[in-house]
Design a protein that fits this description.
Elements (H helix, E strand, L loop, with lengths): L6 E6 L3 H11 L5 E7 L2 H10 L8 E5 L7 H11 L4 E6 L4 H10 L3 E4 L4 H12 L3 E3 L2 E3 L2 H12 L21 H11 L4 H8 L3 H15 L4 H10 L25
Parallel strand pairs: 1-2, 1-3, 3-4, 4-5
Antiparallel strand pairs: 6-7
């Protein structure tokens, strides 16, 4: 074990092969050490209670669909009894509703089980430092994170999807997609957006298609209005201009 690893990890999953896979995937990270494994929520709590000081984890990976005590209940118990531990909930597939429930239960992050090992390692480092990673938005100021999460967990119980929330931090869009939407809001054509962001116009088109698919909308105007209402993008006047790149691919606008 590293003398002072940044992350001491407990893996909680009922499938031995998956636990072994996570351990193997993270073995190349010298600052992450797997200090224990558990196959159920009950076993995880027992492990935490009995862990010697040098093996106390500061991060826990929790399978959402555990037998017996499920992942959400385990997350609640861990947050209640070990408030300093960062909890990453993993699920078989990504779901707004599951992410919503996991974060309300006290998780610091939520990811699907097909997450890339490098991304999982980065998330673990962040939650071990007390940060929250919500749809790729990192809340690294403890006061801000505490306030946001407090407001989030106090939302009405009948709100069951991140998409239903008028809450600007919870966006399904990537940083690049947000940039594209901002440029669209400012009246930019595909070519102008491509030049400003140093990408090809085909890439811009791909981003727009992804945005519309994620938001279940039909055109870019609807997407801009949707994002403006939720505070995901700034008003067009606030968009900064950037010099065009000379090596942008010469695709045609739509």
């Amino acid at each position: 074990m590293s003398a002072n690893p940044a992350v001491k990890l407990l893996i909680v999953d009922d499938h031995p092969l998956f636990r072994q896979g996570v351990r193997a995937a993270l073995s190349i990270c010298r600052d992450i050490v797997v200090v224990g494994e558990a196959s159920s929520g009950e076993d995880a709590l027992e492990w935490m209670n009995a862990a010697p000081p040098n093996l106390e984890p500061n991060a826990v990976v929790v399978d959402l669909n555990l037998p017996g005590m499920n992942g959400l209940e385990l997350t609640r118990q861990l947050r209640l009894n070990y408030p300093g531990v960062g909890i990453v909930v993993l699920s078989v597939y990504e779901s707004d509703e599951q992410a919503f429930n996991a974060l309300r239960a006290g998780a610091s992050a939520y990811r699907s089980k097909d997450v890339h090992p490098d991304e999982l390692a980065d998330v673990l480092r962040r939650v071990a430092r007390g940060e929250y990673v919500i749809n790729d938005v990192v809340l690294d100021d403890p006061k801000v994170a505490g306030r946001v999460l407090s407001q989030f967990r106090n939302l009405p119980q009948d709100v069951t999807s991140l998409q239903e929330m008028e809450f600007p931090l919870f966006t399904p869009l990537s940083d690049r997609e947000i940039e594209v939407l901002e440029r669209i809001a400012a009246g930019g054509s595909n070519r102008e957006i491509a030049e400003a962001l140093h990408i090809s116009t085909q890439t811009v088109k791909n981003h727009i298609s992804s945005i519309l698919r994620k938001l279940s909308l039909n055109d870019r105007t609807q997407a801009v209005l949707y994002a403006l209402r939720r505070g995901w993008i700034e008003a067009p006047g606030a968009i900064r201009s950037e010099p065009p790149s000379s090596d942008v691919e010469d695709d045609e606008d739509e």
